[in-house]
Write a structure and sequence with these properties.
The chain is built from 18 helices and 7 strands. By secondary structure, it is of the alpha+beta class.
Amino acid sequence: MSDRTRLLSSLAPHRWVLEPALAVVLFGLWLSTGLPFDLSAALACVLYCAAVALSRVLPVVALEIAWLAVITELTEGSSLPPPHRLIATTAVAIAVFGISSHGGRVSRWFVFGSAILWAPAEAYLLTVRGDVKFPQFGPVIGGYYTSQGVGLLMMSLLLAVVFVSAWLLGFLVARQRVVSASAVPSTASPSVLVWLASSGGASVKEGDDEPGLVRRLSRPQLTFDIGGAAAYVFFCLVADFASSVMPNATGRSTFLVLIVFTVAIALRRMSPAASLAIAWLAAVLQMTTGHNILVSDVAVLFVLYATALYGDRVVRYAGLISAGLGALVASLYLTLTSALGQGYFNLLSTQLNGLALQFAFLFVVSATVLGLSWVLGLLVRTWRNARVSRHAQIAAELDRNRAEEVVVVEQERTRIARDMHDVVAHSLAVVIAQADGARYARHADPDAVDTALDTIAATARSALVDVRVLLAELRQSQPEGPQPSLADVDHTVEQVRAAGLPVTMERRGQLDGLGSAQQIAAYRIVQEALTNALRHGDTSRPVSVVLAQAGRHDGAPGIAITVRNSMKTASPEPITGAVPRIGHGLPGMRERAVLAGGTLTAGPAAGGFVVEAFLPVVSGARA
């Protein structure tokens, strides 16, 4: 366990202290800047701190306290001093993040709506009731200059971006908390931000993507992102100095906007959600400081591209909404600043059509540019997912081919085992029959012993050759030596006759056209059937073997094999209740017939035992 993990584990039970500590820090800042003498202002300070302190353990209560603090300020005639007002706005943002991160689904969406409503309220307290003033020009409406209304609108938008960004970050933390809790402890490595917010809150339903607030990047990726941000700063500084924007008072605010955009560029891949929030903050800061289009605005395109490429479902849709909303805000802002610069507010009625056309043109251009950057990121994401899916498909096909190879090898081993059983069982049956016959006949007919020994030797040699061929198949992919065919059935019949079992052999019709697999199957079926008749049948009565040209019910030509033998007279045996053992002979014959494309039936019939098989010609054979 690393030192960082050990430290976080030791601090885990005390995470609830974080928000009260932040509240104490905010209250300390209020004390350091001077307590407000007004009772309602002091009460508002205490309520803001309480909302921050309770945002983790009691998110619903914190939401109510935050509303009470805002309403307390709005109902009083005076507002907090500028330092206190800035601290109060910071407290609202922290409370929004805490409630969104730890509250249930209902409280989370209530605080989202509250963040939208708190933005104009806080902007009103900052501008109209506070000391933040805007230039006074244009027509007077309701006792306020039009420029003051535009300033209030810009400040409301700025605070809305701050509050909604805090809500979005809290929402993503809550989603990732579910994934971190369900992940394997050895593989889970949450960021410090997620760890700090990983207690409290109701269950959150996961989306179709793995939710992530902070993405784990490799060292080369981090180096590339930081280098890209540095290159972006260098490019913007060179362009701004070339246009003589920086060396004046306005240049300081331009430099501040550039720094905020640079942070967004650096975080675009590590945390697309934070990058989007910071980009919105920089854009609104640019508008509130009175700037038009800047070179640094190109960062917005990179951020939107990153949200579509790297963000999860929520961040991806947030980027799309930001593209549309950003196009609307930018076109409206540029239209208003153009109207103010040309004094259109004094001639508003005559210039309304021109302003409308200008707004429409700017909106179409802005939406096209911002939308294309987002769509490009989505296309690259789709291409990347398709490539990953293609690689996964190739890997799956390789696994399937390996599995098929294993199955083929196993089938081949099974086939060789069947052949080994047929060879050994048949040969041993012949050897046993010849040995028993020679033992009983050696006194009456000594010559029969020599004949039996010759038969035993020939059968053993033949079996040895077959076993060697089968063992060679185990070592090589291709068999060595000739394989048995339909012509070898006569030799098998002669071996069985020599063992003392009378066999009649009959061929009917044309028996050519069988493939090698069908001929091997026919040979093994006859061999196994005769072996079973020699071992289990009545050896005093003849066995008939018929190989006939036949056709299947569907018209397919082939060969019909019929082996009929008499059964021994069964002696009564006690019933033990045991299930009779099933040998390998009959299942092996049936499987051979099926693999060769045919069928096989075997069973008692009219006092005997009949094996009937059908094997098709080459057109229906299976290799």
